[in-house]
């Protein structure tokens, strides 16, 4: 054994050394009342934490391990209490941060191992293992904290639960920034490995990548972020700091490096803004403010992001619906003209009663009215004084073009896909609205090769 | 420490444990392989010798253990007993000889990567730890994509691909691995006609280059036109050998026996082939 009873106090002394050193340089009142450089110490360390959390969080999210991260952070609490008790009994600075963080890490890793162990050795599902570890470890932690309350100096320990960035001092800042830096650098270095792990762990394993080692590494970094975030946001809220930035970033991009970078930026900004707001208004607890800022970014992203955002998707949907309505209206009108003129060749444009158009499709009068008004605004159709409808010149041309696309597609389905002419109308309906010019040309080419080509094909079914 | 390093090596060039008595010219030799989930055996005492350069179909009813056999060969699930040799040595030391195409549903396709990114994953092993994908790997991945006929979709996010195109991305990733034996888990499942054609063409090309392909397959009607070697599996190996000899009514009945509705399908398929 390389260690023995006498080496324990030495180890503790080593751990408490940075704390002792930090007390020399500056005045405690300044620190407590955020008067001087402590403001930037707090803000910068929270921002650094945000960057690391956003980076690691991206992989945690894509690995679908968000809840495991939550269980992990809750599992740190008993370690904090026990580390405090041990250091207090050993006579060192009982609230020395590195010592408490070491305790948190040990107990977090223990919780993680219990989680993995339950998953591997029993038939219980993952969510049960996570729920168990989360609640049992947290309960244990609360109990331990209750017991150590009687020890001297114990006040403020529970700030690790909800976070209290005002308690971050320069020595803590060094710890937080260097650990956050290490976590960020490791995420960048192992980007390719984590990408593979998150996308396809089976393939990774078949290639010989040690999936378990990578998973442990990833969760180890989550532990590191949790531990350095204990002071800033606390162990209950840290999961929001890990998950919200990447979830927000995901709305903006389909490119993983961009997503991770964006997530780190969002995390950093949330930390920065949250800590600043809370420093300016002492009544607001920073942990909550930081999470609220991150959540605001998330909500903005969820609605405003063009590619995957709610509003963008809704707009695209509405536009497609409008387009379909317009095409149905114009084709309906064109087919009415066609039937009237079926004997004398190409149809010419003339007025027709609204009722006929109403009968073309299963649209309600209100729906039809709405589409008609929109098309009238576009100058495609006009309502005459006697209530009848007539296509404008432009509308007539557009209607001929739309009808032609529809017929081309129908012909193609009949000749190339063996679909019965009586069924072809509806199938064609689905696709033609998204026909691009290039596809229309290919359709024409295919039909011409078949000898089925006509400038304006007749409908293969009864109109 | 030595074992740790070996376990962490993604290149598969680790020191070898010798498997006794397996000839080194046989791409896949399975000996007495049993795999059990929670004490219930899924495959039982499987013995196989697959000769080099064959297109091998692995066929059997649902739950026959086809995917399990494949995963056990690739060390993806623990073996209860038995051993598997790739060219005479354990899989661990022969990884670079093996390309793997998992089932399409095994991953989340709403993942923020492009088709090219996924294919490039096939080159990660030759890259090893920390080194990022470079120009050479990108070119390799692009060539693989072009081989399966979807080079023009390289930049597409994978969610925007059709099911067949996604399957081809997986095949291209295995091609980028540049292996000698390919394990493909149901590549023909729910793909369009164009993709099926592309996969068959690819299998033929690989075969001409002397590669061995093991393919988990479902459609009995196409078995004899796609594969020249057949493994009929239902927990045990019912038969293994050249398709012409193995694909018989008696063998099919043994494989699919008990699955009454399937027997008819199987026999009908056989009749189609004979006629």
Element layout with pairings:
The complex is a heterodimer of chains A (about 475) and B (about 280).
Chain A: H1 7-22, H2 28-32, H3 38-62, H4 66-74, H5 77-90, H6 97-121, H7 126-148, H8 159-162, H9 170-189, H10 191-199, H11 201-206, H12 211-229, H13 234-250, H14 256-280, H15 286-304, H16 310-340, H17 354-360, H18 365-377, E1 381-383, E2 389-391, H19 393-416, H20 424-432, H21 437-449
Antiparallel strand pairs in A: 1-2
Chain B: H1 2-8, E1 28-37, E2 40-50, E3 55-59, H2 66-73, E4 81-85, E5 98-101, H3 115-120, H4 124-127, H5 135-147, H6 163-176, E6 181-184, H7 193-208, E7 212-217, H8 220-226, E8 229-234, E9 236-242, H9 243-246, H10 249-256, H11 260-274
Parallel strand pairs in B: 3-7, 3-8, 5-6, 6-7
Antiparallel strand pairs in B: 1-2, 1-4, 8-9
Our count of domains of chain A comes out at 2
Q: Tell me the strand order in the biggest sheet of chain B.
A: 5-6-7-3-8-9
Mean pLDDT of chain B: 86
- Tell me the overall shape of chain B: globular
Q: Total domains of chain B, how many? A: 1
The helix content of chain A is over 70%
Helical fraction of chain B: 25-40%
Concise overview:
The complex is a heterodimer of chains A (463) and B (275). Chain A contains 21 helices and two strands.
Your description of this structure?
The complex is a heterodimer of chains A (463) and B (275). Chain A contains 21 helices and two strands. By secondary structure, chain A is mainly α. Chain A folds into two domains: 26-239, Orthogonal Bundle (ABC transporter involved in vitamin B12 uptake, BtuC), CATH 1.10.3470.10; 313-449, Arc Repressor Mutant, subunit A. Chain A is 72% helix and 1% strand. In chain A, helix 3 runs antiparallel to helix 14, helix 4 crosses helix 6 (97-121) and helix 14 (256-280) packs across helix 15. With 275 residues, chain B is an alpha/beta fold. Chain B has a single domain, classed as P-loop containing nucleotide triphosphate hydrolases (Rossmann fold, 3-Layer(aba) Sandwich). In chain B, 37% of the residues lie in helices and 21% in strands. Chain B has eleven helices and nine strands. In chain B, the strands form two sheets. A six-stranded mixed sheet of chain B has the order 5-6-7-3-8-9, sandwiched between helices. In chain B, strands 2-1-4 form a three-stranded antiparallel sheet, with helices on one face. In chain B, a hairpin with a 1-residue loop joins strand 8 (229-234) and strand 9 (236-242). In chain B, helix 5 packs across helix 6, helix 6 (163-176) packs parallel to helix 7 and helix 8 packs across helix 11. Chain B is globular and about 50 Å long.
């Amino acid at each position: 054994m390389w260690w023995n009873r006498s080496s324990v106090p030495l180890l503790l002394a080593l751990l408490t050394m940075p704390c002792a050193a930090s007390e020399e340089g500056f005045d405690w009142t300044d620190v407590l009342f955020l008067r001087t450089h402590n403001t930037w110490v707090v803000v910068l360390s929270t921002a650094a934490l945000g960057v690391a959390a956003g980076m690691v969080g991206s992989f945690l999210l894509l690995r679908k391990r968000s809840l495991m991260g939550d269980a992990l952070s809750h599992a740190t609490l008993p370690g904090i209490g026990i580390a405090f008790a041990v250091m207090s009994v050993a006579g060192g600075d009982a609230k020395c941060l590195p010592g408490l963080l070491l305790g948190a890490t040990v107990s977090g890793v223990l919780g993680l191992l219990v989680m993995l162990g339950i998953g591997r050795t029993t038939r219980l599902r993952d969510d049960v293992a996570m729920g168990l570890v989360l609640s049992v470890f947290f309960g244990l932690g609360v109990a331990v904290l209750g017991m150590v309350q009687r020890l001297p100096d114990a006040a403020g320990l529970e700030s690790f639960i909800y976070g209290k960035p005002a308690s971050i001092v320069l020595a803590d800042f060094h710890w937080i920034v260097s650990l956050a830096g290490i976590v960020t650098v490791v995420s960048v270095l192992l980007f390719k490995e984590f990408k593979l792990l998150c996308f396809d762990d089976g393939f990774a394993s078949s290639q010989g990548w040690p999936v378990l080692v990578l998973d442990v590494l990833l969760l180890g970094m989550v532990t590191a972020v949790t531990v350095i975030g204990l002071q800033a946001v606390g162990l209950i809220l840290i999961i929001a700091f890990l998950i919200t930035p990447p979830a927000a970033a995901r709305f903006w991009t389909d490119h993983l490096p961009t997503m991770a970078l964006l997530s780190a930026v969002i995390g950093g900004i949330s930390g920065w803004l949250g800590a600043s707001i809370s420093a300016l208004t002492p009544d607001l607890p920073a942990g909550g403010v930081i999470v609220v800022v991150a959540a605001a970014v998330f909500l903005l992203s969820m609605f405003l992001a063009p590619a995957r955002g709610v509003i963008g998707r809704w707009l695209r949907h509405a536009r497609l619906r409008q387009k379909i309505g317009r095409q149905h209206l114009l084709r309906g009108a064109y087919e009415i003209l066609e039937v009237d003129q079926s004997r004398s060749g190409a149809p010419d444009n003339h007025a027709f009663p609204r009722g006929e158009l109403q009968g073309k499709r299963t649209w309600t009068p209100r729906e039809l009215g709405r589409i008609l008004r929109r098309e009238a605004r576009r100058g495609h159709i006009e309502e005459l004084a006697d209530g009848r409808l007539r296509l404008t010149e432009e509308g007539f041309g557009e209607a001929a073009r739309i009808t032609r696309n529809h017929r081309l597609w129908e012909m193609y389905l009949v000749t190339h896909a063996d679909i019965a002419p009586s069924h072809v109308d509806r199938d064609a309906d689905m696709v033609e609205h998204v026909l691009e010019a290039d596809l229309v040309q290919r359709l024409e080419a295919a039909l011409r090769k078949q000898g089925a080509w006509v400038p304006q094909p007749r409908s293969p079914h009864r109109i | 420490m030595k074992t740790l390093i070996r376990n962490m090596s993604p290149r598969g060039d680790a020191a070898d444990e010798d498997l006794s008595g397996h000839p080194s010219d046989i791409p896949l030799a399975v000996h007495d392989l049993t795999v059990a989930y929670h004490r219930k055996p899924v495959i039982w005492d499987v013995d196989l010798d697959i000769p080099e350069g064959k297109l091998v179909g692995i066929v059997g009813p649902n739950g026959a253990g086809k995917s399990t056999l494949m995963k056990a060969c690739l060390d993806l699930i623990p073996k209860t007993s038995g051993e598997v040799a790739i060219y005479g040595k354990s899989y661990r030391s022969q990884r670079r000889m093996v390309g793997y195409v998992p089932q399409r549903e095994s991953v989340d396709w709403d993942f923020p990567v492009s088709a090219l990114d996924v294919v490039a994953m096939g080159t990660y092993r030759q890259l090893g730890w920390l080194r990022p994908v470079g120009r050479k790997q990108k070119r390799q991945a692009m060539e693989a994509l072009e081989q399966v006929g979807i080079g023009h979709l390289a930049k597409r996010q994978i969610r925007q691909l059709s099911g067949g195109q996604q399957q081809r991305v997986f095949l291209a990733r295995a091609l980028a691995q540049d292996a000698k034996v390919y394990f493909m888990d149901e590549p023909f499942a729910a793909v369009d006609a164009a993709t099926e054609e592309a996969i068959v063409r690819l299998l033929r090309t690989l075969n001409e280059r002397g590669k061995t392909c093991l393919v988990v397959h479902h459609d009995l009607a196409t078995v004899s036109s796609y594969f020249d070697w057949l493994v009929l599996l239902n927990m045990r190996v019912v038969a293994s050998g050249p398709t012409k000899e193995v694909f018989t009514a008696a063998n099919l009945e043994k494989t699919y026996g008990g699955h009454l509705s399937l027997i008819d399908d199987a026999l009908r398929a056989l009749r189609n082939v004979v006629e």
